[in-house]
Here is the input.
Amino acid sequence: MSVLFHSRTLLPGLFLSLVFVAAALISLAWVPYDTTVLNIANRMKLPSWEHWLGTDQFGRDILSMIMVGARTSIAVALVAVGIGMSVGVPLGLAAAARKGGWLDEIIMRANDLVFAFPSLLIAVMITAVFGASALNAIIAIGIFNIPVFARLTRGAALSLWNRDYILAARVAGKGPARISLEHILPNVANLLIVQGTIQFSLGILAEAGLSYVGLGAQPPTASWGRMLADSQTMISLAPHLALFPGLAILLTVLGLNLMGDGLRDILDPKLRRARV
Amino acid sequence: MSLLSIENLSLSIHGIPVLKDVSMQVAPGRILGVIGESGSGKSMSAFSVMQLLPNGTSCSGNISLAGQDVLTLGERDLCRIRGRDVGMVFQEPMTALNPLQTIGAQVAETILVHENVSKSEAMVRAAEALRRAELPQDKFPLSRYPHELSGGQRQRVVIAMAIALRPKLLIADEPTTALDVTTQAQILELLKKLVSEDNMGLMLISHDLAVVADLADDLVIMKNGEVVEAGPTDTVFRTMQHPYSKALLAASNHVPDREGLVQETPLLKVQNVVRDYVTHTHGWWGKTVHFRAVNTVSFEIKKGESLGLVGESGCGKSTLTRAILGLEEVQGGEILFDGQPVFTHHHANIAVRRRMQVVFQDPYGSFNPRWKVERLITEPFHLLDNPPKGAERDRTIAGALESVGLTAEDRHKYIHEFSGGQRQRIAIARALIIKPDLIILDEAVSALDVSVRAQVLDLLADLSDRLDLTYLFISHDLSVVRSITDRVLVMKSGEIVEEGPTGAVFDAPKHDYTKQLVAAAPVLPADITAA
Amino acid sequence: MLHYFLKRLLSLSLSLVAASIVIFLALEVVPGDPAAYMLGLNAQEDTLQALREELGLTGSIFQRYLSWAGGLLVGDFGISYTYRTPVSEMIGDRLWVSLPLAIYALTLSTLIAFPAGIWAASRRGSAADASVMGVTQLGVAIPNFWFAMLMVLVFAINLRWFSAGGFPGWDAGFFAGMKALTLPAIALALPQASILTRVMRSSLLDTLSEDFIRTARAKGLTKGQALWRHAVRNALIPVLTILGLQFSFLLAGAIIIENVFFLPGLGRLVFQSISARDLIVVESVVMLLVFAVIIVNFAVDMAYAWVDPRLRRRR
Here is the structure.
């Protein structure tokens, strides 16, 4: 357990991220006020004891909306990372195992192609045909995550394939698939955990951007990006409407990034210098 | 009058002592050899003369270079000295040069940093320095980039950079360790020539006693950060006092005891084997270029024999090894093990493969860092139809570990808890565990310190007698091959150029290349080995 | 060098073709019949057929793809369903808002990031380094459109140094146009610069620990000289990679940020078109943006060859 203290950033990051994860989880069971109900009489209240963060122009409690928004952002980003990893990592391993072969070429070319489409554009294409929703945001961000993990896994795996212990495994009669699972994957796992945390935080930013322009979760589901879009016209009258959702995004992403840095420090001190 | 005088140098990094009371001198025109195994502090002593030390280092004592105490100088003055009064050559030529700059620019930089001359004049002088390092402009124009040169050539560029301003002292930290035997001999000759031309002092650091014995006028032997023996080379070798130096000398000469009972039946037959690689395809439409790594190679290994395979890097020995082990198919010829082909219908023959195992060179890269020893050494079980389970498995593991001099308890540890020599023992245990007939040792002792190497060679000799093993011993180090093999093959550019009983081949080589190799290999002088 | 250039050019062309196929499939094949999609559920068959003919949607998939791709090559992006005007006209003006914005932001972020990264790396472990790391840690976490909103609040509404939005058009003068793009560009540049600074710093730290830097010091170069003459250029290579990758994010960010500043760029066009179900316009804008990303990556590949001589020679 004491190893958790080796990094200065892990614990603060973990704490910060957990605050929002907790908010998201709690919101599944309970929120202070129902976010789907409009209460015009109560609109634009500043932070007070009844409404800790105030209310928006439709009378909805901002704290509740932030909690529900946390749920939206975290769910979208998490599943998107899940998609990226579960498809990208095997692709990367397969490409590295047969380097130079046709499989490698195809995977690398497909990677490059997807990289040319930022997740926003993928989202644009999906929503143009299927309409906007949180699910489509997940798919768009997830698709973009696939080449990220594929490329990372392939690069790390390639450098390991040259090691003598891989040759020893081949001498022991093991084939590329078995070697990828037994030897390569455990040794790239650390890298993947760190990158997963980073992609999670990027996913939160991406989801916020998509909801801001209306391509993400649709009302009445609250999302941080949507809250910011709604607050824009009121910004000079009620800055707190724009402040809190933005801060929520900032702090969650910051927390995840700090946690990612901290994990990197602990899991592979050699990578410490490579911190980006 | 000494050029460099280190007196009572003590050095610690972040509080941990690295050097204790080290003293040595270099006189103009003389070569000082600093010998030690890894961790002896020899490189640190060199770096302290240049004051190119890691953060957190503190030194005490006196390092006097041409009258000035280096330890009292500020960074400005040190920059003035480096390159001008003292030059340095490092161990790894492949990474010592900036890949983005031409060799001419890099050599000229030494001059431009210290003297106020025009760029074109600096280039002229750089050309001269490169010529002295035996890289003449007609073959190696100044506009060449480092990636266009071989390891030996890059090392010459580094030497040219170091001597461009004719410094009083040259420090060479293991300058030839990463190079081939023949290249090594050439570089050492070059250094000797430069020393006499400029009346320069040379501090030559090495782990190889033979290299230093040939070249050095004075000798210093280090162990654990201390100097244990010092004096003129002849004297030190004849009148060794310290037990460590004696042990080192004994280990360098060590010939393990081997009975070596050889039977007449051939175990491995390699017949006319050809292995081609595709190196280049010109676009998607051009023809493919092949590189012939192994060119019609034939030889036999008899049961119980220890056959040596000697060659420099790029000669094809690794490729041949992989073909014998059944890892890669050959494009021509056949490999038979006890009459059975290693490859049938594009598939390696498992029954054959389980009778051959291998030990690799790098004790640090040959094991998965996340696995325990137990799992590591039982990996070859994958080749067995019925791998042992339960109590029998435990017995096999214990047996393998004990036969290499470790304990059964070690099975629960991780590989990073062991030293280099111990790791090679574990590698041998891994090779032994399914009781193969043939073990291929691919530079298996090359990365080990001399004293550890002697122990591992002893172990290998003992095992081959006890367990009736056959060895294919691949190495670039002729003295090691001489000590443990019965017959030897000499390989160059994919072909076997000479073969025969080890003693005969090395004492009376017939082929030109073998003669070159034998001449280049550093040997301890006969009177020393006799002592 | 020529060989490398041609190889990359071929790669570029293939990527463009592949991307166009993907976009075409997504936006003209997947929705089924694009005419039915655009007209909605209650459309009559003859109206559908008329629309198909008008928009050139008759013919097999293969034929339609070829005519669309062929049109792209000559600058004919088709006719917008909503406005019945050539898409190329609609895109033309807006491109000249989005593209300069992206380039402006890219320039700003590079101008900030490179010196900051080098400065932090050369003073590793010091308070200066820590402050750079701290600021960039915040910078990468800020959503750029939120930062834009805050800047509008402070600089436009409170301080009145800039207008809160809108774009006067390039006819009003180069500086007027650039002034309108300044706040948006800064908002975009901040997270980008933060990422680039960190990459520059880590790349430089890696390079500084390489052997050839030690060789340079042994020749008598000071730490500063070794840094500038040897380390920086070598450290650029990984940074260039990131720069290329980041451009696609920059474009996406520009599209989003246009919403904050009410800029008449490609962003508003594409979002309006999605609402209006005008697939033709969406198709064209996406193709254009992907084209920009691919071109920028090609430029990065060329820059590699300029920086690294190992790539120039035929192997």
